[in-house]
Amino acid sequence: MMKQGDVVMHRGSSTIQHGHFNNRVYVMKLAPADIPDIIRFADDISRKEGYSKIFVKVPESSVEIFASDGYVTEATVPFFYQGKESAVFMAKYMDPERKEVRNATIIADVLSAAFGYAGERGSQELPDGFSLMHAHTGDAKEIAALYRSVFKTYPFPIFDPDYIRESMQGQVRYFVIKKSHQLAAVASCETDAENRNMEVTDFATNPLFGGKGFAGLLLHAMEADLKKEGIQLAYTIARAGFRPINAVFARAGYRFGGLLPNNTNICGSMESMNVWYKKLLEG
Hints:
- The protein is an alpha+beta fold.
- The protein contains seven helices and 13 strands.
- The protein has a seven-stranded mixed beta sheet with strand order 7-8-9-10-11-13-12, sandwiched between helices.
- The mean pLDDT is 95.
């Protein structure tokens, strides 16, 4: 059985994920000092391993360097770096077939439906008997079990309690909703204090407690918490063909940043992803 998730490594001051599970190189955090070395490095890994996609978040000021090496722009997130400079999500395809979006009509329908929810605030009230709180390491086993039950596959090893615990020691915070001691829903955010942004991700609700708007409540709680610490921008990379999660972000006032074709191994197959973003504070 293929191991869930790929290797995360450092090159210079940059952070890279790569492996055959997602069949790609993903430059998760690009340090400007590592340009253009990182381009050659990503090419070398891709050729050696036979990956079909390289995916990079690039500061707008460096877009031309990547474009001249065959990268194309797939999404843009303004205010990404310290509330000032945009991040441009760029990709280079080693296999042109990976660029082809097979379920384009479904994705367009999901996006259109999501736009219909724009600005329509969901309830901010927890139902009686439920509580929302920060997760701690003692919750890791239950969080991993919920992820295992909700996602057939996932691009990071969130089915492993040790990974959850380890990520809690770093820049990742998990927020949970519980009914007494039973885990009803979870989401996380990974903060980049230097650039004052956060990626909100890993939303999952126990099917027993679906339809209560828990993803929206968790999102609102994460935003409120991190705004107090000066985080200026929130963004997410969400499954483009999955209506509920796109509706959550549109309803919460997020803007659409672009589509990442066949980007991520999630829920059992390679899926295209939508980028959504929201400015939380003025710079």
